[in-house]
Amino acid sequence: MPTELRTLLEQANSLRFKLLAIIGKDEAKKQKIISTLQKEKWNLVDVGSELLEIHSKLESENDNELKIGEEIKEWFNEKPNNLILVNASILYHSMFMKISPVGAFKYNSRNKNCVIFL
User: Fold this and answer.
1) Core-most of 40, 65, 66, 104, by most CB within 10 Å?
2) 45 φ, ψ (degrees, to nearest 5)
3) Which three-class secondary structure state does DSSP give residue 43?
4) SS3 of residue 87 by DSSP
5) Eight-state DSSP code of residue 2
């Protein structure tokens, strides 16, 4: 693992919230980071596709606005440690009450190392 990435992960691990947000549009760099983390046994999670499934389930129950935050929390807590979160910008959509992706995951990242791409 490149020293710079390892340093950032160590710094994030020492914080209260173990969430490292990476911002940028360079797809090649993003894929390189993801590949490196996966070699270190990090788990790739497509937030967009998984949360769309949760939203569809709640939509049929007609009380999705009340439950969406709780469902996201439960979904996240069921995930293993060392998460690579991609496609999280779906949370900005009105169907998720325009939740900030960092806001949605930072509190729950107290016990899990996470890298989120924005």
Assistant:
1) 104
2) -125, 120
3) strand
4) coil
5) -
In tens, the pLDDT along 62-107 reads 655 667 888 888 999 999 999 999 999 888 888 777 788 888 888 8
Q: Which residues of 58-83 are buried (b: 16+ CB within 10 A; e: fewer)?
A: beeeeebeeebeebbeebbeeeeebb
Helices H / strands E in the chain, number of each: 5, 4
15 touches 53 (CB < 8 A): no
Q: Are 37 and 115 in contact (CB under 8 A)?
A: yes
Stated pTM of the model = 0.87
Burial of 21 (0-12, 13-18, 19+ CB in 10 A): middle
Domain-wise residue ranges, the chain: 30-117
